[in-house]
Here is the input.
Amino acid sequence: MPDHWALLTYEPTRTATGYRIVITTDVASHLWMRWTTVLPQEHLIAVRRRGVVFRSDKYFCFDVFTDNEQEEAGDTLEHTFIKEPWPICETRYFYFIGNIAGVESPSTTAIFTLHRIAIEETFVFYPDAHPEVTSVDGWAEQDELYLVGGTWGQVRDGGGTYADDDGIALHVGITPASPSNMWWHIRRSILLFDTSPLPDDSVINSAILQLYIITKVNTMGLPSPAFGVYSSNPSSNVGLEAGDYNSLGTTRYSNIVPYGDLTSHETHDWILNAAGIAAISKVGITKFGVREATYDAANFEPDWVAGGLPCYISIASADHLTAPSPVLIVKVKPS
Here is the structure.
């Protein structure tokens, strides 16, 4: 009966909380995994070669270690070790020892090093189409009579006059009224996502809001319009009303995408910043809004242009039958 065994294969597989390590040997044996989180100490040992002593060979020792027995009973050719839990970012050093038919074998393996890295996972969320179950998308506006209009403050800061949550498009933009220096309406979009499936103990690495632009118009020639993501807080998670118009905040949650960078019939990305990522809920509904950034969100009144010529974008909603729905893409890693 042989008294030595040799390692043939080594295969670690990540699990939800640790690793499953499987090795195979050339001889049936029963093994233990000796491991430590402390970097093994390296020592030089004296070796005599042709009468001359050299201190060139190395000896490694584990000052503090744990021995774990293989999962299989008896002597086997395949040896499984379940190492759970194994904390994120912890490095372990280990080698294998064992016996054959109950007799201690002098065989050992090399020292292995395994570091449990944080693996990124991607979650994708959509608003519900009508009839909504957990989340809604739509738009709201403050609208004044075209032939009368309202001041910039009246339109921008108004309480809302109309909302739509089951149309195929979401609208964002500004339109002047007929009288000089008066404004007809401002429109803002609201997008909610049920992000409760996110793991409670996860860390959000990044998030992107993807929106499909159906059309864009700037017949009023508004200089440098742009669009960004902001907070929203509609009165219901599954429907919109006119008063939700002024529930949008002014703290920007994303990069600003200039009007000139948008293309009709294409999907565009709004990358969430730290404030936007912090607004993502792991236990319920995440509430975002889109508004014009240069003038509306910044409260900077543009020069008036006659004729009711608008500047706006239209975004495909969850109720659009052919265009992509709004989507929130969230990448997380274990905490």
In short: The mean pLDDT is 93.
